[in-house]
Design goal:
alpha+beta; 2 domains; five-stranded antiparallel beta sheet; four-stranded antiparallel beta sheet; elongated; glycoprotein; GPI-anchor biosynthesis; transmembrane; transmembrane helix; endoplasmic reticulum
Length: 245
Amino acid sequence: MESYYEKHESFIDSLFDDFLTQDLPVNLCKILPCDLNTVLSLSIQSRIKGDGSHRQLSSTIKFNIGKSLSQVPTHHCKFIIIERLPSGVFVDPFELEHLLHRAVFSDVAVFGDTNLELPSVLSNFSVVEVHKDIGLNILSHNKNLLDFTVDLPLHSRYPRLDESGYVEVRLKAPDLFLQCSIQEKPLNRSCLFKLETDDEEADLTWSIPAGKRSDAGIVSVVTFVSALVSVLCIVFSTQVRQPKF
């Protein structure tokens, strides 16, 4: 993701798709099959857990080697998960740093709009890149190897006004990659593959409570009256407690 933002100032789906297909050295490793999807079986199920404005984006990944690659030299692989987050939600980089220190992920980073205070109408897309180690020489085995869950803390931004009382935020299925470091002489080689899931993953929808424009007048009056009463109470309390000489 860092190389994408070196070329583009903001995240746009079409530009990112072009970046994946044209700029990244994907599926170019001569030691491994040019398309690992022919020997791997991969499925992912995502859901949003929790209540309120602070939730978790939970993705369960099941990874199976359909045909072992015994000729592959010693290698160490990791999953790379790219989550594209629309303007209505964000991930707190400080929370991710805490998870990284606890070794929940091997690496994690947030790109794009990381201003946590902006409302959704003033914010832009952000992208989370998660790295998860999956072990040594996994491609040389022929068995079910992985069944793990990645939980990302997700927060909603202040949404725009909507007469329905809710604003829907749609989260697309993540992009999945497999990166393997292969030990060769005289130098090690790193291979990157884009993975395809066995089933079509539907978008997730999060309905976020929003204020109604028709209620704006009532809210303004109540806020003004509350503020005025508070000021009068403070002034009265100050006068009553003022010492007499």
